[in-house]
Amino acid sequence: MGTKFDIRYVFEYFVKLLPYIQISLFIVASSIVLGLVFGLLAAIPRLYRVPVLQRLSQVYASFFRGTPILIQLFLFYYGLPELLKLIHIDVTRVPVLVFVILVYGLHSGAYVSEGIRAAVTAVDRGQVEAAYAVGMSGFKAFTRIVFPQAFAIAVPILANLVIATLKDTSLAFTLGVMELTGKAQTLPTMSRHFIESYIALAAIYFIVSVVLERLFLLVERRMLKHERETGNADRVPLGKKWLKKRTNAGLALSKGGNRA
Amino acid sequence: MKLDFSFIWTACVGLLPAVPTTLKITLVSVLCGLAIGTFVALCRMYRVPVLHRIAAAYVTIIRGTPMLTHLLILYVSIPLVVDGLADRFEWSFRSAQIPMIGFAYLSFSITAGAYLSEVVRSGLLAVNKGQMEAAHAVGMTTVQGLRRIVFPQAFAAALPNLTNSLIGMLHGSTLAFTVSVVDINAQAEILATTNWKFFEAYLAAALLFWGMTVLIERLSALLERRVTRYNRGGVA
To answer: A199, B84, B142, B185 - which has most CB atoms within 10 Å?
Structure first.
């Protein structure tokens, strides 16, 4: 299988793969947007304990977190047309990309709903009480007080999700979508230099995920500004470095601004 | 075409022979990954010269690239290396003799090792430093202190993350079909194409995975209650 390793092919394929980043990123971006919508829809019934819907959203989150994304892809790609055919809707002409984005959207939606739940519950109860005390309505308290804080907590969760989704998009090739992985598998069919192509592929994924990580770190710093300022004022100067770190973590946790 | 609900059950039964393969891949990769991960985490925590840099690079690179690329790279490069070595040293062993599942074991172990090293590291960091100092104070060596004092507590702290990794690897094992290992996913595809019942076959596979995931979560919750017994608050 394959021929002698030749580093030049790595660079060649690297350049050839570059344009396909946008397809992968497009899948990631649209499925995350879709996932945020699904996730919010699924999280609200559980946060406000809406009777039947709460159960439904639990089942939804459990199913999409409890089954492999690959199985979900196949299930929706092959299953959904059959189901829709029963109610006489023909989706055989819908492009594959739509299915892929739908599945990744549903998949990330399950994680988003859990993330939202964790973030909102991490905001100190006293914040809502204080908002009510100054006369805000329930909706105002949520949008002005809880949401900004919860969002700051949720940024690292979201960052992880985006990077995980990026890596998961490598599975879209199984349905024939020509994204990074799919292209990396077809490029070397002539030259038989598969290793070089896969190494270039891994390098691209690595670079993209590192860049994404950095970007989210910047956003997180910006969002947690309010926490850091108070955190600095409270910092107790202690001799040992690790002790200081732990004290700070403890302080942040009690404020409900930690990423716990 | 009508949906055939009885076929979901038939497919579930048909998928059962493939369950051991999936479980084997998952368990082997998690156990090997745990060994690699513990070694890597210790290297990084004790700042072993040279090794801790390699360990950090290993973790960053593996965590920054999809699991599929690890499998693909190993799948195409190992035969090249093995055959090259076999030519040079005149072995009778050829790469074609490597069972396909071997690639899955190796690749997933490497993947799991990187993720688990972070789990182990966070678990070890969660243990109060005073515990190790106390272990030293009563005359234990570092290895003894790690094994008897730190690891049991770190295990309790890391258990939720460990469960998540185990589930992640269970789900990741579906990638093994790319190197033509017949796991649950591949078996579902076989059942789907031979019977032309895609929805039912994949739904059966999904239900099977769902069941296994829920089972692992439940077991882990039970285990967690057992291993965190030492520091539960309150009386009694």
So the answer is: B185
Nearest to B79 by CA among B100, B58, B64: B100
Q: Which domain holds residue B144?
A: 5-227
For residue B233, being part of any structural domain is answered with no
Instruction: Name the residue among B2, B61, B175 with its Cβ closest to that of A70.
Output: B175
pTM: 0.82
Structural domain count, chain A: 2
Cα angle A49-A52-A57, degrees, rounded to a multiple of 5: 75
Min Cα–Cα distance to chain B from A184, Å: 10
For residue A248, the enclosing domain spans: 231-260
In B, which residues are within 8 Å of A198 by CB distance?
Answer: 69, 72-73, 76
Decide: helix, strand or coil at residue B22. helix
Return the CATH number at A99: 1.10.3720.10
Q: Is A196 on the interface with B (CB under 8 A)?
A: no
Residues A153 and A258 in one domain: no
User: Does the residue A2 lie in any domain?
Assistant: no
Would you say residue A158 lies in a domain? Answer: yes
pLDDT in tens, A102-143: 999 999 999 999 888 888 888 888 888 899 999 988 888 888
Give the model confidence (pLDDT) of A200-258 as tens digits. Answer: 999 999 999 999 989 988 888 887 776 655 444 444 443 334 333 443 333 333 333 33
Helix pair angle (B100-126, B51-64), 10° resolution: 110
With an 8 Å Cβ cutoff, the interface of chain B facing chain A consists of 1-3, 61, 64-70, 72-73, 76-77, 79-80, 129, 167, 170-172, 174-175, 185, 188-189, 192, 198-199, 202-203, 205-206, 209-210, 213-214
Q: Are residues A113 and A41 in the same domain?
A: yes
Of B61, B192, B209, the CB nearest to A78: B192
Total H helices, total E strands in chain B: 10, 0
Note whether B41 and B161 are within 8 A (CB): no
Residue A5 burial class via C-beta count within 10 angstroms: exposed 0-12, middle 13-18, buried 19 and up:
middle
Q: What is the largest CA-CA distance in chain B?
A: 74
ipTM for this prediction: 0.83
For chains A and B, CB pairs below 8 A equal 112
Residues A88 and A104 in one domain: yes
Distance from CA of B185 to the nearest CA of A (A): 7
State whether A39 and A97 are in the same domain: yes
Is A137 in the same domain as A240? no
Task: State the total domains in chain B.
Answer: 1
Q: Tell me whether residues A167 and B65 touch, CB distance under 8 A.
A: yes
Q: How far is B39 from chain A (nearest CA, A)?
A: 22
Asked, for residue B232, whether it belongs to a domain, the answer is: no
CB contact (8 A) between residue A181 and residue B171: no
Residues B140, A192: Cα–Cα separation, whole Å: 57
Q: Do A67 and B129 touch (CB under 8 A)?
A: no
CATH number of domain containing B41: 1.10.3720.10
Q: Tell me, yes or no, whether B73 lies in a domain.
A: yes
